[in-house]
Amino acid sequence: MGKAVQAGLSGEAISGRGVLQAIGGWRGIAEALVPGLLFLIVYSFTKDEKLAVIAPAALAIIAVAIRLIRKESPISAISGAIGVGIAVAATLISGEGQGYYLPGFWINAAWTLGLLISIAVRWPVLGFAIGAFRGGLSSWRQDRSLRRVALWLTVLWLAMFVTRLAIQLPLYYSGNVEALGIARLVMGTPLFALVIIFTWMVLNRLRQSSDDSSGETVENTGETPPLA
C-alpha cells in the first residue's frame, strides 16, 4: 500500500517493475505463495493435514536460513515463517485441512474491521498513507479532493478484504480444502496486485490534475491586468 501511494503521489509512471516491487518482488511473491501451494498439492494427494504441513514448514525454515547465510535481512522471511508457523499450529490443533487457512481469516477480518471503523469516523486509512507522503498525517483533510480520493480508495481496499471473506468462508465451513486453497491463491497476491495498480493509477491521475491546476493558476496570476 505504501509503495503504491508514494509512487502515485510522486507521479511515477506505472510499470511492471514498480508493481513488482510494491508487492514484495519475486522473492516476496514466492515466499507468500509457495508455502500455501505446497500445502495444497500435498493435501490434495494425501488428504493428510499432518503430512501436508511438513512441506511449508520446511520451506519457511529454509527461506530464513538462506537469508542468514547470504547475510541478507531476514525480517520478511522470519515474518513469513511466523505466518506459516501459526497456520501449521492452527491445522494441527483443529485436526482439519482447512485449519491451515484459518489465520488468514483473522487477518482479513482485522483489516475489514479497521477499515470500516476508519470510514465510520471519517478518517479513512488511505488518508493517513497519503498524508505520510505529503508531510503531514492530517494535512490531507484540508483538501476536498484528497478527502474524497482517500475515502474511495479505502472503500476499494475494504472491498478486497470483504470479498475474500465472502467467497472463502463458505468454502472453509463446507470443508472443501482444495477449492479454498485455490481461492486463497487467486485472491492473494494477484488480487492484491490489481488493487495496488488501481490505487497507483488513481493517485497518479490526482497528481496530474493537481499539477495542471497549479500550472493554470500560475499562468493566470502571471498576467498583468490592463490599466484603466
TrEMBL record:
InterPro entries attached to this UniProt entry: UCP010219
Protein name: DUF3159 domain-containing protein
Keyword Zinc belongs to the record: no
TM region(s), chain numbering: 25-45, 51-69, 76-95, 115-137, 149-167, 179-203
Keyword Transmembrane helix assigned: yes
Key words, A-Z: Membrane, Transmembrane, Transmembrane helix
Top-level taxon in the UniProt lineage: Bacteria
